[in-house]
């Protein structure tokens, strides 16, 4: 396990984060307390220190388990949790990004986690209602109070994140050091705007859904009793899974490791930290084994070419040779751009 600086901060986090949405059986699936602890200990023994949970995961059970597991060595672990999602569906102020819900949610998380502070607090999803200034001021107050060390933002439009960090810098408030989003070989949409934005703002990216909802493991390609998030997978997805399985077989590795390493090796697009999640000890051990090897350059290209993404306007337009000539004349190829 190696470590990365989290965004513009000096915080050191492991190159794989542990997602804990599977901790607890309150939702009818997931891991028991015993198995959750086994998963956590396997991750920690491998050198992992970056644990990701949320206020609503398994109705708060995930936070309780995580709090118990890290309590004996609290300052070693980088604890990340989230606010936004509703904890009382009938109450309009028990969800969202407004200050009232933010403060209430954080106090609840601190109690469940049995800690005095949160290392990284994520805004879980943009609610489209709360002014960005209200969100930032509330988060900055939590940082200044010592209850939160750093802030991040998840599942939000790129223009909102850019606006927020510009406002934060202008006002002297805490800015977002990290971005969380879904990203996998089967779902490359963040490459359009979110990853370039994160790179420009020097934000780290924690990627969830790196197995494409399990599609990339190949479990939808055959009849089996493995738990499935979807009713099925399309032929295109199954074809991509076949390639992933072939690459895995050629390396003597699992398809999950191939999918993880494809994300892990996209560092030129941004500073990316895959989030691994598991329901069994065997699964987390297999995921951690991805650190033992890497995909070759040819394998990366083969996989990427099998799942192409159209960047669309304005990216394709601005990359067009005729448009570049209109902008730069004959000089574009003569300019060394150190920012790429």
Describe this structure in words.
The protein has twelve helices and ten strands. Helices cover 39% and strands 14% of the residues. α7 packs across α8. The strands form two sheets. It has an eight-stranded parallel barrel with strand order 3-4-5-6-7-8-9-10, surrounded by six helices. Strands 1-2 form a two-stranded antiparallel sheet. The protein has two domains: 3-309, Alpha-Beta Barrel (TIM Barrel); 315-340, no CATH class. It is globular. It is an alpha/beta fold and 340 residues long.
Q: Roughly how many Å is the radius of gyration?
A: 21 Å
Question: Architecture of the largest domain, according to CATH?
Answer: Alpha-Beta Barrel
Q: How many strands, what sense, and barrel or not for the largest sheet?
A: 8 strands, parallel, barrel
User: What is the helix fraction of residues, given as a range?
Assistant: 25-40%
Number of strands: 10
**Annotated CATH topology of the largest domain:** TIM Barrel
Helix segment tally: 12
Taken together, the total number of domains comes to 2
| Order of SSEs | EEEHEHEHEHEHEHEHHEHHHH
Which stretches are low in confidence, meaning pLDDT under 50 for 5 or more residues running?
none
Strand order of the largest sheet: 3-4-5-6-7-8-9-10
Strand residue percentage: 5-15%
**Cα distance spanning the termini:** 27 Å
What would you call the shape? Answer: globular
| CATH H-level homologous superfamily name of the largest domain | NADP-dependent oxidoreductase domain
Structural class: alpha/beta
Instruction: Look at the structure and give the mean pLDDT.
Output: 95
CATH top level of the largest domain is Alpha Beta
Query: What would you call the quaternary organization?
Result: single chain
């Amino acid at each position: 396990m190696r470590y990365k600086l989290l965004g513009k901060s000096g915080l050191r986090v492991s190159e794989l984060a542990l997602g804990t949405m599977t901790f607890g059986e309150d939702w009818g699936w997931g891991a028991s307390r015993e198995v959750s602890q086994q998963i956590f200990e396997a991750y920690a023994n491998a050198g992992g220190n970056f644990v990701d949970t949320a206020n609503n995961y398994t109705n708060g059970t995930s936070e309780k388990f995580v709090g118990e597991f890290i309590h004996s060595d609290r300052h070693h672990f980088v604890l990340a949790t989230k606010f936004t999602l509703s904890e009382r569906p009938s109450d309009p102020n028990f969800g969202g990004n407004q200050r009232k819900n933010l403060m209430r949610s954080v106090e609840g998380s601190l109690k469940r986690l049995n800690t005095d502070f949160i290392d990284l607090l994520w805004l879980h999803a943009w609610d489209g209602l709360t002014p960005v200034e209200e969100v930032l001021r509330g988060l900055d107050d939590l940082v200044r109070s010592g209850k939160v060390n750093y802030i991040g933002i998840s599942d939000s439009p790129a223009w909102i994140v850019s606006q927020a960090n510009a406002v934060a810098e202008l006002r002297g408030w805490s800015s977002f050091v990290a971005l969380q989003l879904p990203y996998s070989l089967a779902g490359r949409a963040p490459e359009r705007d979110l990853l370039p934005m994160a790179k420009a703002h020097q934000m780290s990216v924690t990627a969830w859904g790196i197995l494409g909802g399990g599609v990339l493991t190949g479990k939808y390609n055959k009849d089996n009793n493995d738990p499935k998030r979807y009713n099925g997978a399309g032929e295109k997805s199954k074809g991509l899974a076949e390639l992933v399985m072939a690459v895995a077989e050629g390396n003597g590795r699992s398809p999950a490791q191939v999918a993880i390493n494809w994300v892990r090796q996209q560092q030129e697009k941004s500073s990316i930290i895959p989030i691994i999640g598991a329901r069994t000890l065997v699964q987390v051990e297999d995921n951690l084994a991805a650190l033992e090897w890497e995909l070759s350059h040819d394998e990366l290209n083969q996989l990427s070419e099998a799942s192409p993404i159209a960047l669309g306007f304005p990216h394709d337009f601005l990359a067009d040779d005729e448009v570049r000539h209109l902008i730069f004349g004959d000089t574009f190829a003569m300019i060394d751009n150190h920012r790429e």
